[in-house]
C-alpha cells in the first residue's frame, strides 16, 4: 500500500476527495500525513477528522523559503511517504524537494494545461480570455512550474452566464474526480512516463 503525503494551504476540498476515496477503498494508498504551510486552515480540520497526522510549517518560522521547504521534505521522509500530492498548495515547491521525490509528486491545477499555467487564478484567467472550454489537469511535478507530464485532464464547458465562482465550482467537481484517480494509477504503478507523455497501463485485474 503506497504511503501518501498531501501538501495543502487552505480549504482542502481536494484533500477531502482523497480521504473519501481512501475510505471507499479506491485510492490505492493511504494518506499518512497532511502538511500545511498555513496554520488554522480547514484542510487541517479535515485531516484531523479523518485521523490523519498533520504538520504545520509556516514560512515565518524559517529564515528562508528553502529552509521551510527542506523541513517539509524532512516531514515527508520521516513519514516514509512514497507519493506526494499537491492539493491546493499555494507555493512553488523548492527544486530540491522536487528532485528528492522525482516522478512521485502530483499536482492538480484548475486549467487545461498548458493554458493558464503558473498562477493562482486560472479560472478567472480562462473567463477573461474567453475560452469556450476550461477544465483541470493532474500532472507530475517537475522543476518547471505547471509543466510536468500530464496524467489526466477533464474538460469543462464555459457557459455564457458563468462567473468565476460558478465556473470554479464545476471545475472543482472534476478535480475531485481526476485527482484520486491519478493517485490510484500512480499508487498501482500504472503510469509510465515516456518523454512528455504519460502512458496509462491497463489494470492487471481486469480481464478484457
Ligand atoms: C483547487 O482549485 C486547485 O486546483 C487550485 O487551488 C484550489 C484548491 O482548492 N490549485 C492551484 O491553483 C495551483 N496552482 P482545495 O484547497 O479546496 O483543494
Describe the structure.
With 208 residues, the protein is of the alpha/beta class. Helices cover 34% and strands 25% of the residues. It has 6 helices and 9 strands, in the order E-H-E-H-E-H-E-H-E-H-E-E-H-E-E. A 7-stranded mixed sheet has the order 3-2-1-4-5-6-7, with helices on both faces. Helix 1 (13-23) packs across helix 6 (164-187). The two termini are 25 Å apart. The site of glycinamide ribonucleotide (GAR) has 15 residues, from helix 1, strand 5 and helix 6. The site of glycinamide ribonucleotide has 15 residues, from helix 1, strand 5 and helix 6.
Summarize the topology.
Layout: E1 2-8, H1 13-23, E2 29-36, H2 42-49, E3 54-56, H3 65-78, E4 83-86, H4 95-100, E5 105-109, H5 122-129, E6 133-140, E7 150-157, H6 164-187, E8 191-194, E9 197-200
The protein binds glycinamide ribonucleotide.
Please summarize what this structure is.
The chain has helices spanning 13-23, 42-49, 65-78, 95-100, 122-129, 164-187, and strands at residues 2-8, 29-36, 54-56, 83-86, 105-109, 133-140, 150-157, 191-194, 197-200. With 208 residues, it is an alpha/beta fold.
Question: Could you list some keywords that capture this structure?
Answer:
single chain; alpha/beta; 7-stranded mixed β-sheet; two-stranded antiparallel sheet; globular; binds glycinamide ribonucleotide
At CATH's second level, what is the architecture? 3-Layer(aba) Sandwich
Helix content: 25-40%
Helix count equals 6
Question: Regions with pLDDT < 50 over 5+ consecutive residues?
Answer: none
Whole-number tally of structural domains: 1
Structural class: alpha/beta
Tell how many strands the DSSP assignment holds: 9
Molecular shape: globular
Mean pLDDT: 97
Measured between the Cα atoms of the first and last residue, the distance is: 25 Å
Q: Proportion of β residues? A: 15-25%
CATH topology: Rossmann fold
Task: List the secondary-structure elements in sequence, H or E.
Answer: EHEHEHEHEHEEHEE
> What is the CA-atom radius of gyration, in angstroms?
17 Å
Amino acid at each position: 500500500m503506497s504511503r501518501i503525503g498531501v501538501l495543502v494551504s487552505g480549504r482542502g476540498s481536494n484533500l477531502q476527495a482523497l480521504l473519501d476515496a481512501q475510505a471507499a477503498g479506491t485510492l490505492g494508498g493511504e494518506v499518512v500525513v497532511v502538511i500545511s504551510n498555513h496554520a488554522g486552515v480547514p484542510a487541517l480540520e479535515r485531516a484531523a477528522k479523518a485521523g490523519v497526522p498533520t504538520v504545520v510549517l509556516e514560512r515565518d518560522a524559517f529564515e528562508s523559503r528553502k529552509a521551510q521547504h527542506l523541513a517539509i521534505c524532512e516531514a515527508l521522509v520521516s513519514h516514509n511517504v512514497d507519493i506526494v500530492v499537491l492539493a491546493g498548495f499555494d507555493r512553488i515547491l523548492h527544486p530540491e524537494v522536487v528532485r528528492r521525490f522525482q516522478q512521485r509528486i502530483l499536482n492538480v491545477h484548475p486549467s487545461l494545461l498548458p493554458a493558464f499555467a503558473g498562477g493562482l487564478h486560472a479560472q478567472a484567467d480562462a473567463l477573461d480570455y474567453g475560452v469556450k472550454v476550461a477544465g483541470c489537469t493532474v500532472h507530475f511535478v517537475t522543476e518547471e512550474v505547471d509543466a510536468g507530464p500530464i496524467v489526466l485532464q477533464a474538460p469543462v464547458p464555459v457557459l455564457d452566464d458563468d462567473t468565476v465562482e460558478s465556473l470554479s465550482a464545476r471545475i472543482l467537481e472534476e478535480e475531485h474526480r481526476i485527482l484520486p484517480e491519478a493517485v490510484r494509477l500512480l499508487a498501482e504503478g500504472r503510469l509510465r512516463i515516456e518523454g512528455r507523455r504519460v502512458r496509462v497501463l491497463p489494470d492487471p485485474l481486469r480481464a478484457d
